[in-house]
UniProtKB/TrEMBL annotation:
<feature type="transmembrane region" description="Helical">
    <location>
        <begin position="7"/>
        <end position="29"/>
    </location>
</feature>
<keyword id="KW-0812">Transmembrane</keyword>
<protein>
    <submittedName>
        <fullName>DUF4199 family protein</fullName>
    </submittedName>
</protein>
<dbReference type="Pfam" id="PF13858">
    <property type="entry name" value="DUF4199"/>
</dbReference>
<feature type="transmembrane region" description="Helical">
    <location>
        <begin position="41"/>
        <end position="58"/>
    </location>
</feature>
<keyword id="KW-1133">Transmembrane helix</keyword>
<feature type="transmembrane region" description="Helical">
    <location>
        <begin position="112"/>
        <end position="131"/>
    </location>
</feature>
<keyword id="KW-0472">Membrane</keyword>
<dbReference type="InterPro" id="IPR025250">
    <property type="entry name" value="DUF4199"/>
</dbReference>
<feature type="transmembrane region" description="Helical">
    <location>
        <begin position="79"/>
        <end position="100"/>
    </location>
</feature>
């Protein structure tokens, strides 16, 4: 199955991200009060999850592909991983704002857009770092 790596990596990123949001919620840390506290670094740690997950997912694809990866194979694999993790995050977000955090933050849409841009940049960087066939760029 060609999608096995992307599905597994996407699920891992999505589930770990969901767990992180739940931990932050029950610790009383949310985007509104983080801005006014010394815990702002906690908010940025959530970015590390998809960065590491995307890199490891693309690297896993390369390893399963006889240690061979073109730039576009890496980018495509990264997009598949982001799509799977995005579906999980979207499903969780709808539940989160329905049951745990009833106040929808306007800042939330900016965060989704920022996460997509970061995911795209990490996918490009990981593909460049891991590609083995530079002539096929």
């Amino acid at each position: 199955m060609k999608m096995k790596n992307a599905i597994l990596s996407g699920i891992i990123i999505g589930v770990v991200s969901v767990i992180w949001v739940i931990i932050m919620h029950f610790a009383g840390i949310n985007p509104e009060n983080v801005k006014e506290s010394d815990n702002r670094w906690l908010e940025y740690t959530s970015v590390i999850i998809p960065i590491i997950g995307l890199y490891l997912g693309i690297r896993g694809f390369k390893n399963r592909n006889n240690n061979s990866l073109t730039f576009f194979e890496g980018v495509f694999e990264g997009f598949k991983i982001m799509a799977i993790s995005g579906l999980i995050a979207g499903a969780f977000s709808s539940l989160y704002f329905s049951f745990l955090n009833l106040e929808f933050s306007s800042d939330y849409m900016e965060r989704i857009f920022g996460a997509a841009i970061i995911g795209f940049l990490v996918t490009l960087a990981s593909s460049l770092l891991l590609m083995t066939k530079p002539k096929q760029l």
